[in-house]
Backbone:
């Protein structure tokens, strides 16, 4: 009875007639950045790699590791209004990717039956970026409020971030999920270019669909299956390892692609038995109008497929291949022949979801 | 034999070793802006309404009629390289829609078997916007070259435009298609917000899928089924009339929505027997998290559906209703709860295509 009373009090005391209380993910007593490897080491900063990685990966990779692609913050609140404010370090937008995708955040509420529902916030891009979510649905049966999942910018770094709610309302950060993550090593495509908003990057769609942590270790223009990155990934006790690196391997010879795939897979398999997925280049959507693109991606696929076959022959178990026919990338699925729009992102996520549901 | 020779000459004479010849759609001897109503009256300028409309429509509608949404230029060329350069009048991008969609162009090649293939051009946004298409596939069996379809910016006005090819190559504007167009009166959504590139606006997807002219008379924030616009549309002898206006009718009472739908449909039906489609509001994708959005769109749909039923009772023939269940708008199909991303645009286009194939 007392519990019921305090629960109801929690709900009814919460109103807009109050000052804003700012909650700081970075200042929290426990790590709250979901899908982040090395939480213990990184602490509560908005990074994808631990500081020591600066010494082992190329500068371009290190710089891109500051982008918050795939990171998310989960929390409970019963507030009717949530304000997210933060500072980003880079440009707000690219010509082929809007500010909402490059630098925006994306919020979903989790319903009591586990479904994720999109929430929209009015936004303002400036020295401080702000998203304001209003008129949020509340439910007296959920006195602490719904669980919310906030997806962070795909192509920008976050300097600081605060989540504001009316002071009279409940707010509670949710600790980092404990499941072994699905780890994705990839390129600009897996990093999230060019989704219209963070939740539409395919690793984030996949995370929502599976309701499971998916760690984004993808680096725009800089994901060519390098040993330095595989060595870091090897520190993650993953549920599944995904290598979607081919779109950045176009400048490599067949032999070098073969070598990197062989060594990368062996490197992981020497330590873990978890499933490993190698992914085809899904194709350039202008490969029937541009003579330079007609065969480029097919060559890379053949080189990787050769390595895959050899790895199977070598007795590597639990190794899977996601080929471009299975991805079935839509002809209109890119903004620029290379980078998926949201239609293409959904196709990638659907293909991965189907495969992962068999493996997990 | 002589014909064969000159055809082959046409093909082989064309090379990059030549000066660029600029072709000017505005200066052409016949109108070349596809999907443009009132071609004879507008001439060859990049407009959606004739000049006299300024006196009859609201200023906001008039201003938006300068946006080139839905306009396209079709041409033949056998050139290996095409440069499109032009000047736009407004901002390049919006925070939730990239420059490629707001101000970019989009090029497709038509293969001999009638399929449209995406081409990609490297772009540069500046005082002069430029798209450069290189390494284009050529086919000796198509001496004049492929037909190309160039889709113009969705959310900007075009001051002037030139299409450049090597001087030694063939170039030929294709006259405006003669089929009666599908005419769409709508809001920001139908205008193309927030597609990643022009061809992904749903009226343009539909035009490609049907290989048929679709005229875009949609005006961002300004498509509330107004008599002044219906009176102009009434001048177009359309194959099908589509009224997708509800997303801009939220501030109107049920009675006013009912009245405008009744009068608008009757206005068209008094003159034409062509199919008329009324379209539901497809829903806000945050309607389960935002209390203000939960019922707003359903109310509008009920008001329009009531008018639809009454029109049927009144004996109006060839009247169709595209309801939100049939549109089946995806939960992740918007960038901002209201405006479709490319995933949502595809859903709209698919729903319209299915219905139109029954009617045409």
Residues:
């Amino acid at each position: 009875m007392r519990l019921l009373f305090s629960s109801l009090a929690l709900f009814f005391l919460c109103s807009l007639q109050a000052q804003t209380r700012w909650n700081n993910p970075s200042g929290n007593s426990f790590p709250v950045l979901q899908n982040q490897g090395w939480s213990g080491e990184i602490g509560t900063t908005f990074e994808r790699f631990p500081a020591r990685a600066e010494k082992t990966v190329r500068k371009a990779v290190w710089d891109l590791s500051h982008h918050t692609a795939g990171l998310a913050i989960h929390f409970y609140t019963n507030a009717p209004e949530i304000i997210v404010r933060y500072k980003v370090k880079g440009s707000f937008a690219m010509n082929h990717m809007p500010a909402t995708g490059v630098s925006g955040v994306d919020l979903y509420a989790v319903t009591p039956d586990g479904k994720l529902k999109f929430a929209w916030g009015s936004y303002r891009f400036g020295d401080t970026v702000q998203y304001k979510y209003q008129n949020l649905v509340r439910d007296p049966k959920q006195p602490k409020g719904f669980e919310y999942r906030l997806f962070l910018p795909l192509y920008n770094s976050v300097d600081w971030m605060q989540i504001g709610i009316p002071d009279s309302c409940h707010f509670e950060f949710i600790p980092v999920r404990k499941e072994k993550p699905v780890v994705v090593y990839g390129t600009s495509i897996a990093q999230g270019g060019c989704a219209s908003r963070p939740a539409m990057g395919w690793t984030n769609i996949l995370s929502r669909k599976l309701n499971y942590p998916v760690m984004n270790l993808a680096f725009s223009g800089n994901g060519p299956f390098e040993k330095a990155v595989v060595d870091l990934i090897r520190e993650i006790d993953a549920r599944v390892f995904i290598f979607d690196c081919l779109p950045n391997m176009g400048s490599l010879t067949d032999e070098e692609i073969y070598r990197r795939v062989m060594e990368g897979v062996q490197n992981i398999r020497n330590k873990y038995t978890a499933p490993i997925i190698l992914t085809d280049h899904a194709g350039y959507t202008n490969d029937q109008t541009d003579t330079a693109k007609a065969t480029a991606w097919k060559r890379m696929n053949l080189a990787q497929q050769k390595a895959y076959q050899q790895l199977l022959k070598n007795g590597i178990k639990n190794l899977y291949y996601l080929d471009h026919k299975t991805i079935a990338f839509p002809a209109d699925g890119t903004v620029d022949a290379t980078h998926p729009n949201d239609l293409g992102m959904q196709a990638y996520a659907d293909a991965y979801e189907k495969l992962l549901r068999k493996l997990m």
Notes: The two ends of chain B are 41 Å apart (CA to CA). The first helix of chain B runs from residue 2 to 13.
